[in-house]
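Archive maintenance. Older records in this collection stored only the sequence; we are now back-filling the structure field for every entry so that each record is complete. The fields below show one back-filled record exactly as it appears after the update. Entries are processed alphabetically, and DNA polymerase III subunit delta is next in the queue.

ARCHIVE ENTRY
Title: DNA polymerase III subunit delta
Organism field: Cryobacterium cheniae
Length field: 387
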Amino acid sequence: MTVWDGLTGQADAIAIFRAAAERPGEEDAEARAGSAMTHAWLITGPPGSGRSNLAFAFATALLSPGTEAGDESARRLVDARTHPDLTVLSTEGVIIKMDAVKEAVKRSQYSPSVGRYRVVVVEDADRMVERTSNVLLKALEEPPERTVWILCAPSEADLLPTIRSRVRSVRLRVPSIDDVAELLVARDGVDRATAERAAREAQSHIGMARRLATNPEARERREETLRAALGIRGVSTAVNAAARLLAIAGDDAKAITLERDAAEREGVLRSLGVEPGQSVPPGLRSQIKALEDDQKRRATRSLRDGIDRILVDLTSLYRDVIMVQLGRETSVINRELLTEVRAAGTACAPAATLSTLDAIAQARQRIESNVAPALALEAMLVSAIRR
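Back-filled structure field:
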C-alpha cells in the first residue's frame, strides 16, 4: 500500500506529485532547476475533490525516506499532524488569522529535523485576506532550500496574482460517482448501494459523501431539506421553510461540533489539572475563555458551511426539476424523490425553474457577503413557489 492509495479519481495529479516526490534531494541549484520538484505548489479543485487529502499524501511522500510506499512512521505522524517537519496552516473560523500565518512563515525557516524537507500545508488558502496573503508572499519569494509549501484553494483566482506567479498549480477534476462510491466501499466498509446513493447525492463531494453514507441523521436532514422546498405553495410557506432550513443547518452544525467541543474542553481542563466538576480557578479562566472563543468561531463557520450545503442540495433538486421538464430523467440526482420532482416540473415552465436556480446562486453570494441568512433564504424560496 502506498501513500497514494487512499485517493480517488485524480490519476493525472497523482502522477505529477509522485514524480516530484521521487526526485532525489539535489543540493545543486542548477540540478533543481531541471527537476520536477519545486518549492511551492498550489492544488486547486472544487470542494470535495480531495485537495487536502492529496496535499497530505504528497507531504507524507516528501517526509518519508524515499520509499515508494512511504514510511509507516511518517504516515502516522502526518495523519496525526505531529510530524516535526510538518506545519499545517488552517482555520476553523471564517478567515486565517495573521498571527497564524506569521507563525507558519517563522517555522518554514527551520531546517528539516528528520526528513528530506520541511513541509508547510496551507488548507483553504483562499481564506486569507489580502494583507495576510502578503505575509505569505514574502515567504514564497525567498524560500529556504529545503522548505516546500503546499497551498490548497478552490481556484487560482482565489489567490493574489503575485502568489499565483510563484507556485506550480495542479488542477483536480471532480471525481466520478463510481470512483467516490468505490472509495467509500473500500475505505469505510459501506455497502455498495448506500455508497452509490451517497456519492450521487453528494455530487461526488468526497467528504460529504462519506458523511451521508455513514450518518443516517445527515441523510434524514438532507431529505427533509428537499421536501421542505418541494412543499412551498405560497409566501407564508416560503418563510416557514426558510426558518426550517436555517434550523436544519444549525442542527447539522451542532452535530459536527458539539461532541468535539466537549472533548476539547475536557482535554484542556485535564491538562490544566482541573478535575471534572471542579470550578475553574480564576487564574486559568482566560485559557478557557480563549478556547470558547475559538469554538464559537468554529461554530459560526460550521453554520455557514451547513447553509451552503443546503443551497448546494437545493441546486441539485431544481436541476433535477429542469431535467425532468426537458425529458432527461436519466440524469436525475435525487432519484428517490422522482415522483415529487415530476410533480414540481409540471407546476411551472422551465424558465421559472431557471429563475429559481439563479435565486439560489444569488442567495449564496448574499450570505457570503454577510447578508442575514434568514433574509437571503426567504428571498430565494419565494422564487420557488409552485402552484
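Update note: Residues 25-35 have pLDDT under 50 and may be disordered. The longest strand covers residues 147-153.
Entry marked complete.
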